[in-house]
Every structure is written in C-alpha cells, then in structure tokens.
C-alpha cells in the first residue's frame, strides 16, 4: 500500500514539475482545447502561470476538461464555442473579458476536415466548411480579439496552429492542406499589420501528432510507415511536444519573433 502511494506521489510530482511563472498575470484563450494539441497547449499555458479560457463545441467536453485542469490547480474558464459561429466567437471574447478583464494570448487551434480523396472530387460544400472553420474563423476571431489588445496597449501574442500539410500537402487531404497553406500567409500578413502595435503573430506547423484528429493516419500501419520513412526521428509526435513551443512563442522570451512559422515534425521534410 505504501509503495502504491509513493508511486502515485512521484507521478503527481512529475506532473507539476513544469509549472512556472512565465505567464503569471496573463490571460489566454485557446480554441478547440478539450482534446489533443489544444488541450495540451491550454494545460501548458496554465502550468506556466496563465489564466486559461478553454472551449469546445460540446458542453460535456468543456465541463470534463475544466474539472481535469482545475484538479491540477489551474485557473480555468470553459465555454461552448463553435468558431464558425459569429455569436459563439463574440461570447468567447466577451466572457473572457468579463471574467479576467483582458486577453494577452490567443491560440487559434480549431480545424476540420470532412473529406478524404482527390481534391477535384471535393464538393463546394466541403470547401466552404473547411475554409470557414480553418481559415475564415481564425481571421474573424483574431479580428475580435485585437481591438481589445490595442485598447489596453497589451503586447499580445497570437499563435495559429497550422500544419506541415500547408507546406507539403498530405495525400488525399488536398483541401485541408490548402487551407493550412492559407494560414501561413495569414500569419505573415497580420504580423506585418499588427507589429507596430506590439502584437506578435506566429504559427506552428505540426507534423503527424498522435491525436484523435489524426487517428486515421497513425492507426494505419502502412500509411504510418510511409510517413515515418522520411521522418528523422522515426516516430509520431505527441501533443505535449507542440505545447511547449506555443508557450515559448507566447512568452517574453520570444518578444522579437513574429511572422514566423515553426515546423514541429520530428524532421519530416517541409517546403512550400
């Protein structure tokens, strides 16, 4: 019994070992943050001192995630937000301001991909859904947040979660890949336009990361082997390996970094 208690205590100590004050006093919004990369980004920002607002399209996912993060001692606010809906985006921003009074960090992570196959076989409806969620909603959410950063003269940090597919398109995921390429351009455009206000905009481009979203890829043995053949580290990444980078890009240590896209792919070749 004592051995089990000691083992559990050791695990808990390791769980909180990364906690720091890097983002003390800051407020962060992370979209699509109840699972996968978004969840680990929210968790890392919280352990690095930020007050974190999480969101998901489903209330029960929000409630469960809030309980988990609060059990780790994090200051978390959660709400339902479908980023493709204008009212949901406004509510996400307004409730954050009501609760915490400001927004220092925004991480746009939400994405969708309802189709798999040849790009020319994709319907107009599929194109609209992918671009509305992956690109347009990202732009509109940033547009909703930036005026508040400017008003309070906050040196804000915005990170867009793109994908290595935006640099090197995934087979049978053509429209999704194109939408992620658009995010790389959006990052550079907004970095130039917001730089004079001290607001930084960067993006990350994860490779194959072990999440529910990419499950169809990493669970397929033959597809996985083909993808890993050109990956220097010969393994699939984890959401935690994206989270630390986002925390860094959101921090004062990255105060002279903007308009950049950083690939997190274990060495998979990437070039636009």
TrEMBL record:
Gene3D superfamilies, per database record: NAD(P)-binding Rossmann-like Domain
GO molecular function: carbonyl reductase (NADPH) activity
Transmembrane portions of the chain: none
UniProt name for this protein: Dehydrogenase reductase SDR family member 4-like
Keywords on record: Oxidoreductase
Family designation: Belongs to the short-chain dehydrogenases/reductases (SDR) family.
Top-level division of the source organism's lineage: Eukaryota
